[in-house]
Structure formats: structure tokens, C-alpha cells
Amino acid sequence: MRKLLNVLYVTTSDSYLSLENNNVVISVENKKKIMVPIHNLESIVCFGYLGVSPALMGFCAENGVGLCFLNQYGKFLARVTGPVYGNVLLRKEQYRVSLEESECVDIAINCIIGKLINTRTVIERAIRDYGERINVFKLKKVSMLIKNSINALKESRSLEEIRGIEGDCAKIYFEIFNKLIVKQKKSFYMNGRNKRPPMDNMNALLSFLYTILSNDIKSALETVGLDPYVGFLHKDRPGRVSLALDIMEEFRAFFVDRIALSLINRKQITEKGFIKKESGGIIMDDDTKKIVLTAWQNRKQDDITHPFLNEKVKIGLLPYIQSLLFSRFLRGDIDAYPPFLWR
Known about the structure:
Layout: E1 6-10, E2 15-20, E3 23-28, E4 31-37, E5 41-47, E6 51-52, H1 54-62, E7 66-70, E8 76-80, H2 88-98, H3 101-130, H4 136-153, H5 159-175, H6 201-223, H7 242-248, H8 252-265, E9 274-276, E10 282-284, H9 286-300, E11 303-305, E12 312-314, H10 318-331
Parallel strand pairs: 1-5, 2-6, 5-7
Antiparallel strand pairs: 2-3, 3-4, 7-8, 9-10, 11-12
């Protein structure tokens, strides 16, 4: 099994990253602040405009350490990668399957079933934990609607039908998302899902975390030799990591939504850490980003029993495990892609 390494997140906008004796050196105003051994890192993620030395970029590419650049909102900008790994026959099969709608439908159904089951689990756990403080009737109604949608999904025969079911479920889920927030309700609320840029604190937090998750899954897919840009549910588009977005569906509620709700309900973050820009978009300040990223990294260290492998693994390894299972499916080692189901 792959070793779970660390991700270095750099959030200070005036940092400069360089290489020194196989270490990443972070300098601010020409003063060295932090030195981190590269052999302990899986990737480096930089927020805002940062200078990076060519030597560091080359070293990361040669040693399989991802180097990713995001803007202040968390939107993906660019990524430095080395040679493509894996069996070319695996990628050729991926490309072939992506052109066959009937095969894409089977894959897409499994991915979205995983998403909807995990979404229901978030709702049901909120009912269990906060039943006396939330509108249980409304939440149970939405949970049942999603359950019915899962049954309808199994009978789908086209990608458009699958996208329609998924879109309807996402709409009713985010309509009751505010009810899952039991603390700081006035500071964190949603008037629907919005992004590019996010227009409220809740959407800013979710968008930030979804971007981090997307980057983790993209790295995992590249590690097992798959092309993250060729998906089965999400349409091909220049610059879009369609397969990463496909796999990401089953992790949205389990990974991102749970962390976001926990940070708010435990008052680990507050509205003071969110800044409104002249454009109306909302960003987090550096201190809040650090709190969020620390919670993210801590969550990745938790153990969970994988429902398909029936083995205890670190949560941070789940994107890699699902990518590995997807490659095994394409090779014909297993009959279907088994999505991650949170019980």
C-alpha cells in the first residue's frame, strides 16, 4: 500500500520557494522562514502569486512531487508535472471507454450512487447528532427523496438522465444545507451554491475545500497512470480534470461538507476570517486558511475501514485507493467500478 505523505500548503502571498539540499525553502522578504525535506512531501500547493525557483520546479518534476498553483479564491491556475507514468495500454483503454456512451453510463451511475449515498449519510448523521436543534421533518423528507433518486438512477440509460438526477439531488441538498449549521447561522449561510467567485462565507469555504480535494484526486489518478482529463460523466473540456471530477463526486459530502460543517459548528473558524473583495467575491484570510488546511490534514490521518477492500486505511489514501480500483476495473480485473460508500 502506498505511504501517506504530507502536502505542503503555502498561503502567504509574498513567499518565494526555492531548493536547498533536497529541501523546500520558503522565504519572505529574502528571509528564510521554513525549510521542509522534499522526501516527506507528496505535493506542494501554493495560494496566490508566489515565486518558485526553476531548480525547485525541476526537482519536483523529476521526483514525482506535485507543484500546484491556485489563486486567492482557490481556483486552479497551473500545475508542474514530470513524465507521464503508468501503462500506455491502460490509458488507451480509458480513452476507448470514454467514447462508448453505454459504458460511460455504467461508470457514471456508480459514481453518482456513491455521491447520493454519502450525501444521505451526512443528512442522517445530522438528524442523529442534532435532532433536537434542527428541522428533522424537512431533512428526513430530503433524505427520502435522495433515496428514491438512487433507485431511479439505477434505471438510467443516458448521461443526460444521470446528470439530471444528480442536479436535482444537489439542488434539494443545498436547499437544506443551512439547516445542518447549528452555530454561527447568521455568519454562515447559503443562498444556493455559487462560485467563481463565491459570494458568501459558506460558499467560499466549500469552494476552497473542493479545490483541495480535486487536486488530491488528480494527483492520485496520475500516480496510477490514468489521464485525469478524460472522464465519463463530466464532458471533456480544455483544462478540465474530468475524471478527477467524476471520482470526486463520491467524496464531496463525506470529505468536504463534513469538514466545513464541523469547523463552523465547533466555532474553529468565524466570520472575521472572511474578506469581501471589491468584486463582491469572498476569500479567507491566511490565518483561517491555515486552520482549514490543518483540519484537512488531520482528517486525512484518521482511520476508516474501506467498504470494498474491508481493510483499515488512512482517509487520506482514499483518493489513491479509488484511483487504483478504477484502473483495475479498466484492466478487467473487477467487473465494475466500486465507489466509496460511507456507512
